[in-house]
Amino acid sequence: MKTIRLTMAQAVVKYLSAQHIKIDDEVQPIFAGVFAIFGHGNVAGMGQALEEQQKHLPTFRAHSEQGMVHAAIAYAKANKRQRMMACTSSIGPGATNMITSAALAHVNRLPVLLLPGDFFASRTPDPVLQQLEDFSDPTISVNDCFKPVSRYFDRIMRPEQIINSLPVAMQTLLDPENCGPVTLSLPQDVQAEAFDYPEEFFIKRTHSIRQIALDNMELTRAVEALLQSKKPFIVAGGGVHYAKACETLQKFAEKYQIPVAETQAGKGSLAWNHPCYVGAIGVTGSNAANKLAQQADVVLAIGTRLNDFTSGSRALFANKTLLQLNVSRFDAIKHNALSLWGDAKLGILQLDKHLSTWKAPQSWLTLGQKEIAKWNNYYDQITSISNSSKTEDILPTEAQVLGEIKRHGIASDIVLCAAGSLPSELHKLWRTEQAGGYHAEYGFSCMGYEIAGGLGVKMAEPSREVIVLVGDGSYLMLNSELATSVMLGHKMIVVVLDNRGFSCINRLQNATGNRSFNNLLKDCQSVDDGHPEINFALHAKALGANSEQVNSIQELAPALSRARSSSKSYLISLVTDSHKISPEGGCWWEVAVPEVSSNANSETIYQAYKKAKTKQPY
Prior knowledge:
Blueprint (H helix, E strand, L loop, with lengths): L2 E5 H10 L1 E5 L2 E4 L1 E6 L9 H7 L6 E3 L3 H14 L5 E6 L3 H4 L2 H10 L3 E7 L33 E4 L6 H12 L7 E7 H5 L1 E5 L6 E3 L8 H12 L4 E5 L1 H5 L3 H11 L3 E3 L14 E4 L6 H9 L2 E5 L5 H4 L9 E6 L2 H4 L5 E4 L2 H12 L6 H22 L14 H10 L6 E4 L4 H8 L8 E3 L8 H12 L5 E6 H6 L3 H8 L4 E6 L4 H9 L24 H7 L3 E4 L6 H10 L4 E6 L26 H12 L5
Parallel strand pairs: 2-11, 4-5, 4-6, 6-7, 7-9, 8-9, 12-13, 12-15, 13-14, 15-16, 16-17, 18-19, 18-20, 20-21, 21-23, 22-23
Antiparallel strand pairs: 1-10, 2-3
Helix pairs in contact: 1-2, 3-5, 3-18, 8-14, 10-14, 11-15, 15-16, 16-17
């Protein structure tokens, strides 16, 4: 057996460079590159190895460990989980900064390879700088925090251990059911240790993502339920995109006359003007989708976890026959559903073969079309800027901003959001025209994902305009990858909607019977002069981006035109109303209400909460 002598870090990089995947008859590297922030714990080992392999595995310098992992996750999502990135950090805070992002990837079932540095395996210099010590267990480091937020975790204590661990890492990253973050914790001394690795370990490997066909018994049961249905209803989730099943779903819905609603992750499965489309579902949904969901007798959920926002905290789909077509067995049985464990595309095609000449009644689809027509009229009203004023006391709403961006956009635009009230407004009001045109991180709803995520999406889709919509709160939490986008030449448009605080949570605070407190800046402790007036345009300019602040909704369209013509990232900021959101569309969402409170209206709100809970199945 021929061998090659490499350090463990060199072997990791060489192995990753050899992994490829076949996408639409084209073989491409699985890893588009490595995001790295070097420090003690990875600069000597991984840093040296990556520098040698720049032609085969590019390294990108980020400004925040959390931000770089967000960017890597967004890249994988935009690539439908087929291509991805790795991220390496130093030990201590460099590693722990990646844990929030690991949780985000875990919740959203998105692949990313994390390579944090760790303590010395030899323990000779312990405790090293930034090393956490467990007084009863010397094998524990901060990297053990990755265990609950990783699909696969291993600490590499000997250089030869990667021969077993790296193939398992690849299998996990590409497994449609178990897909998620993988963490290989790399002690800094082991990174630099050499070993005689077998040459065959580094041969070029071309992977494919397996497709799971439905079990015959589960298929028969689902077909029987649909054949007896008079009001079938489809909920399209993110699995539709990952299975590349958008066109298949469209044809299926048309053939059988079934209305289709979309989750946050599933948005874009159908174009907004498709004859079967009835809009967004759930708490952030449209009147049309939620009305039909309540009347449906059989619900076919495809590629969705049916979380509380989608299911109205389990109340929306109560007392219905629920079919869960999902590549994950864990998700396929949720809500006491009839399981359809398998790939979304294969599953739809298998259902199609067995439904024969059956169709849902035309009156059912007609009802859906009438309801979405009403919703479209509402959209026109709520997004219109005709009633806006240039005076300071009448501020534009988020709906008006979204409408203006859409009216002056193009079909291939990709809009991105993550936290606050923007995902709600976008889910029900954004008109997606092309698959992949809507990118929301709403599994973890992580403030600070937006700008870093925009960078990752632009790296995946360089020919499309990426428009990041972010609130002032999220922008202040994590904005440093705006500088990275300028440095790497990946231009995006960032629109900051400044409502001077955490207005979404302020509204929730009020809705649960509480007084405004510590959310809007005016309701927080501050000096006598009050909270600072933050100039986001100047801040973005300091990071190297082009920018401007607009003073009215009428100024937004010309600013967007200038942003599109810019050769580098461009930020637009404007002040928006912190109280007004689109009142229509959503269904009930369970948020615990205090049983006892000093607020005068708390008892009324608590009684309404108890009444709403009776709609839940248990």
